[in-house]
Specification:
alpha+beta, four-stranded antiparallel β-sheet, two-stranded parallel ribbon, 10 strands, 39% helix, 11% strand, elongated, queuosine biosynthesis, 4Fe-4S, Epoxyqueuosine reductase, cytoplasm
């Protein structure tokens, strides 16, 4: 029997293509893939209320792009669908987070930032995914994003079925918790969409109760100006004094709201070797980190998200943690060594830390 040859002009089988896309994504190292439409009207309203309340602090970029963030076709004309992917980031063998938080002499770095910066790694793999799609359908409109543009990544991921947005405003997957990165491929292909994820936080409020600075002001309400991740990464000036003591030993980011989340008992171990901790940053001592020169900082954080805080911000954050540390000669010496730092910002936080240490000693530790 003579086999028919399909016409090159025949439209692709988009349902089959969607299945292939998810398979290819797994082969590229993504843990999950979902496809959503572009309607984010409710999320646009929520975002605008958040901005109007000034809860974004100094993150002016959150308001800079108007509706491009909530209307994908304005950011990338022709966009009909968004392919969302996630990648687990907790590598095996990482020091226990609670143990590090309980060690006042150690510096706590958010678990996502311990290894290689994920942005370029994930974007490159999304580009490879696009190349596989192109090999089947020919040229098509697309653009890959990984925290690189105004994108409502959590809302899009929720709409694609990858998880729900928890009361702490972090995406939660019922099979993998919340320790994962997100990326998106905007496309003009009319792919079938996946059903959105339903919420499963129930009556739990652990994330709200545990926040050291009460940054989660209510369910699904985050005041970024109080969030330790904002204070240690996004904020470039002085950390408000009333928030310094609650920061404890957190020097880059904060994971407390995720650490107490019951769903993280299902968190998956990362398969990407590049996410493994570098330079023992999953529990390094504050005194050692405070002694890094700018050259050492730049060398040891090359290719890492920690670079975002900058050297001055790094010293500022550690100075606060040293002020909260148990009294000791090594702590005193480290602070004294930076008391005349060239940076007024560092000097200010060192002076605060020294005052904290002095007060603690007067109280007997």
């Amino acid at each position: 029997m003579r086999m028919s040859v399909p016409s090159l002009s025949a439209p692709p089988d988009y349902a089959a293509l969607a299945r292939d896309i998810k398979r290819w994504a797994r082969e590229l190292g993504f843990a999950d893939t979902g496809i959503s439409g572009v309607d984010l009207a409710e999320d646009e309203q929520h975002l605008q209320h958040w901005l109007d309340a000034g809860r974004h602090g100094e993150m002016e970029y959150m308001a800079r792009h108007g509706t491009k963030r909530t209307r994908p076709a304005e950011l990338e004309p022709g966009t009909q669908r968004v392919i969302s992917v996630r990648m687990d980031y907790t590598p095996p063998g990482t020091a226990n987070a609670w143990d590090v938080l309980g060690d006042g002499e150690a510096g706590y770095v958010s678990r996502y930032a311990l290894g290689r910066d994920y942005h370029k790694l994930m974007r490159n793999r999304l580009q490879k995914l696009a190349e596989r799609i192109r090999a089947v359908v020919g040229e098509f409109g697309h653009r890959a994003y990984v925290d690189s543009a105004p994108v409502m990544e959590k809302a899009l991921a929720r709409n694609s079925g990858l998880g729900w947005i928890g009361k702490h405003t972090v995406l939660i997957n019922r099979h993998a918790g919340s320790y994962f990165f997100l990326g998106e491929l905007y496309t003009d292909l009319p792919l079938p969409v996946d059903p959105p994820a339903s919420a499963h936080c129930g009556t739990c409020t652990r994330c709200i109760e545990v926040c050291p600075t009460q940054a989660i002001t209510g369910p699904y309400q985050l005041d970024a100006k109080r969030c330790i991740s904002y204070l240690t990464i996004e904020l470039k000036g002085s950390i408000p004094e009333e928030l310094r003591a609650p920061m404890g030993n957190r020097i880059f980011g904060c994971d407390d709201c995720q650490l107490v989340c019951p769903w993280n008992k299902f968190a998956q171990v990362a398969t990407e070797a590049d996410f493994a901790p570098r330079h023992s940053l999953d529990g390094a001592k504050l005194v050692e980190l405070f002694g890094w020169s700018e050259e050492e900082f730049l060398k040891r954080t090359e290719g890492m998200a920690i670079r975002r805080t900058g050297y001055e911000g790094w010293l500022r954050n550690i100075a606060v943690a040293l002020g909260n540390a148990p009294p000791g000669d090594a702590i005193d010496a480290a602070l004294a060594g930076r008391a005349d730092d060239a940076s007024p910002l560092v000097r200010e936080h060192v002076a605060w830390a020294q005052a904290q240490q002095a007060a603690r000693k007067r109280r007997g530790g």
